[in-house]
Amino acid sequence: PLFEPRDQATSLPVAYDGDIALILKGGKVWAVEPLAVRQLRGGWKAPFLHRCDCQSQVRARVHGVDGRTGLLTPFPELRAMMDFTPSEFVATVAQCRGERAGVRRLVPGDLQLWQDMCQLLQKGEPLTSQL
User: Fold this and answer.
1) How far apart (Å, rounded) are the C-alpha atoms in residues 30 and 43?
2) Number of helices and strands in the chain (H, E)
3) Closest CA to 37 of 4, 85, 100, 93
């Protein structure tokens, strides 16, 4: 699933509505819920953020991902927020709501995407070797 076409958005919007995004930051894959643009690159007016943008800053809530079930769990308060740049954005992933209020999981295909990305990073292989 790493290099297959996706149904979810492939660009990062300026306005957010509870989506979960995967980002690559500090050599690790993070599942985050973008909350707000904290700093927008000067002169940018499009409804999305450009992947090459290293200047804009997006504030996000960090979530843990259960590698077996896809369950999303917000990080504890002290580590709950993270800023990232649009250049660190990888993909928006689909989620489904659980039976209990507030429970969310990655859908199976996007859980597999997250697992594949984590495994690839653990192996230390350059992404271009998969093309």
Assistant:
1) 29
2) 1, 10
3) 85
Whole-angstrom distance, CA of residue 121 vs CA of residue 10: 21
Q: Which among 65, 110, 80, 108 is positioned nearest to 92, based on CA atoms?
A: 110
Residues 6+ apart with CB under 8 A from 62: 30, 31, 32, 74, 75, 79, 80, 81, 82
Q: CA dist 68 to 101, 102, 110, Å?
A: 21, 19, 12
- Per-residue pLDDT tens, the chain, 131 aa: give them: 566 676 766 788 888 888 899 999 998 999 999 999 999 999 999 999 998 999 999 999 999 999 999 999 998 877 799 999 999 999 899 898 877 777 899 999 999 999 999 998 887 655 544 43
End-to-end CA distance of the chain, in Å?
12
Confirm if 11 and 90 have CB atoms less than 8 A apart: no
Residue 94 near residue 7 (C-beta atoms within 8 A) = yes
Q: Which residue has the tokens 């093309």?
A: 131
What is the residue whose two structure tokens read 């250049």?
87
